[in-house]
Write a structure and sequence with these properties.
Number of domains: 3
Radius of gyration: 29 Å
Distance between the termini: 38 Å
CATH architecture of the largest domain: Alpha-Beta Complex
Strand order of the largest sheet: 3-2-1-4-7-6-8-5
CATH topology of the largest domain: Spore Coat Polysaccharide Biosynthesis Protein SpsA, Chain A
Oligomer: single chain
């Protein structure tokens, strides 16, 4: 066999298929692929198996490459990182140049997997630097692809596994001493810019300048000296700062489900405000209270001026105390990533301390997708976009939950999943009883109550914080067990446009009559898509006739809901963990 391709991996399910497809498309067949996997927690191994790769155990890159080389049958070894892609004709061009010049070790020039002019210039500069200095000192990095002869690999004893940084340059240098080294001129590799995106140009340039200078001076650096990681650690659990918006209960409920999974594998420091804090502190340790923003509602309408004045009254105190608390605790805790469920202050602290930020919420469907909406709500949309963009600043990844799926603007940064559901909801056995389930986030919607009294149906009502019966209206104080029982047996649901209850109702096949809070575009959008998909109705105002018509059409909506499939949370949790590993 001519060529053995060795790929060290750890949680590379996003990138590995692209590399393997590019290998498969080459006009060259005399090769084998060996994947040295460091116990990936995603589907990396399954992907490698599907493509017919030989799989061996890996570790840090040096160990993985050596383990792959031990089972290699090719006379030539090509070490590739998992996030590169081969250009057309790469194998033939690389081997032709390698053999014609009787080389012992070689690397390829790079083309960034980016449309950015800056990235192209930076990589071309790196190419020219490598060519300029190739006669001075053999050097290179794993991302450039390392092509060598198996007999030379064995002669130098492979990669030095005692080195946790620069093992690739050290390897090239040692083989270069006993053979000929060259930067190949024609074949090029398409390389990922994920580390550049993660660390930023300034940080990465400093690290590589320092490491290159030390290398040319003969000094070895460790990964810890450069704060350089390979996405996994065998010594300690990753650390996550997770912060949750306290407006309503939706953010807290979603975060509670996600945190139950994260605390199994990570050390998590949790911050939340208002109702989210009260909810989460009963479920988890290490939960800390911060101040949050609150919307002022009157008669099912957002009062913008009162909301603004209320926020401005406390903002100086909130900003000072929240940042002081978050800054001190983050510096002590040293999180690898920050995860925010639409929580403003964690977004700020991630940028101040330059810690990668992951956004997990339903709000960003407004800014990150090409949504449809009635044009008369354009002003509300613009207002919502401004708030969303100011709340969550420059996240590395957007993970959006939704029961509707408009086109994503930037699939490289944004992923969408079905709504996160509590296991209690997923375990319910729903049926259609005789009552209508009513939920309101504001206690001020008196018009709704007057209307419901005129309709000859039983209404079980949550959100008014009282246990009382008034004719056909049965008020309930919030109790989770009773809430689930009443929702499970409801004939239908009447609510605002709140995302969580609508999502849970749809999962249980309950038609929804939605009256979104005026001025609250997120709720308006939820109600619009609810009606568009045929799962219920969107109304600006509540009135007796429209509710009665809705109830008459319940068989139609129930039939439509038979096609609705909610998620099981697994895919979202897997993606979040994969992103945490990638960014940390």
């Amino acid at each position: 066999m001519k060529l053995s391709i060795i790929i060290p991996t750890y949680n590379e399910e996003e990138y590995l298929p692209k590399l393997l497809e590019s290998i498969k498309s080459q006009d060259f067949e005399d090769y084998e692929i060996i994947v040295a996997d460091a116990n990936s927690t995603d589907k990396t191994r399954e992907i490698a198996e599907v493509y017919g790769c030989k799989i061996v155990d890996g570790g840090l890159p040096a160990e993985g490459r050596n383990n792959g080389a031990k089972v290699a049958r090719g006379e030539l070894l090509l070490f590739l990182d998992a996030d590169v892609v081969l250009t057309e004709g790469y194998f033939k061009e690389a081997i032709r140049e390698f053999e014609s010049e009787n080389l012992g070790v070689a690397i390829s020039q790079m083309i960034p997997l980016s449309t950015s002019r800056r990235d192209k210039i930076l990589h071309e500069f790196a190419n020219r630097f490598m060519i300029l200095t190739e006669s001075i000192k053999p050097h290179g990095a794993g991302c450039c692809g390392i092509l060598t002869r198996k007999k030379l690999h064995e002669e130098v004893g492979g990669f030095d596994e005692s080195l946790d940084f620069g093992e690739d340059t050290d390897y090239i240098e040692r083989i270069g001493r006993i053979s000929k080294f060259k930067v190949l001129r024609k074949p090029r590799l398409l390389v990922s810019i994920r580390r550049l995106e993660k660390e930023g140009l300034k940080n990465l340039a400093f690290k590589y300048t320092k490491s290159t200078l030390c290398d040319f001076l003969g000094k070895k650096l460790s990964a810890s000296e450069l704060n350089y990681t390979f996405g996994h650690s065998t010594k300690k659990r990753k650390r996550i700062l997770y912060s949750v918006c306290g407006e309503g209960m939706g953010h807290a409920i979603r975060s509670g489900v996600i945190l139950e999974e994260l605390v199994k594998d990570y050390d998590v420091l949790i911050f939340a405000s208002d109702r989210a804090y009260k909810y989460l502190k009963e479920k988890f340790e290490n939960v800390h209270e911060i101040y949050g923003f609150n919307t002022v509602y009157e008669n099912n309408e957002v009062k913008d001026l009162k909301t603004f004045l209320k926020a401005m009254k406390t903002f100086p105190r909130d900003l000072k105390e929240n940042l002081s608390l978050l800054y001190k605790m983050a510096r002590d805790f040293k999180p690898d990533v920050v995860v925010s469920d639409f929580e403003f202050y964690a977004s700020l602290i991630s940028n101040i301390l330059r810690i990668p930020l992951i956004s997990v919420d339903n709000m960003h469907v407004i800014t990150q997708c090409n949504i449809e909406y009635p044009k008369k709500y354009r002003k509300d949309k613009l207002k919502a976009e401004a708030v969303i963009r100011s709340f969550i600043i420059r996240p590395k990844r957007y993970i959006i939950t939704s029961y509707f799926f408009p086109k994503i603007k930037d699939p490289e940064k944004v992923v969408m999943f079905p709504p996160v559901l509590r296991k209690e909801i997923m375990n319910l056995k729903p049926y259609y009883g005789d009552h209508i389930f009513v939920y309101q986030t504001s206690k001020s919607n008196i018009r709704l109550l007057r209307t419901l009294k005129k309709i000859k149906r039983k209404f079980i009502i949550y959100g008014f914080d009282k246990d009382k019966t008034e004719g056909n209206l049965y008020f309930r104080k919030f109790n989770e067990d009773e809430f689930f029982k009443d929702l499970k047996s409801a004939a239908a649901v009447i609510t605002n446009g709140g995302f969580t209850l609508i999502s849970e109702a749809l999962y249980l096949k309950k038609p929804v009559y939605s009256v979104p809070v005026k001025g609250q575009f997120e709720q308006i959008l939820n109600a619009f898509y609810l009606e568009k998909l045929g799962y219920g109705e969107f109304h600006e105002e509540v009135d007796k006739k429209s509710i009665e018509r809705f109830l008459e059409k319940l068989p139609v909506y129930r039939k439509n809901l038979e096609e609705y499939e909610g998620g099981d949370n697994i895919a979202l949790i897997r993606e979040l963990k994969r992103t945490i590993e990638e960014l940390s």
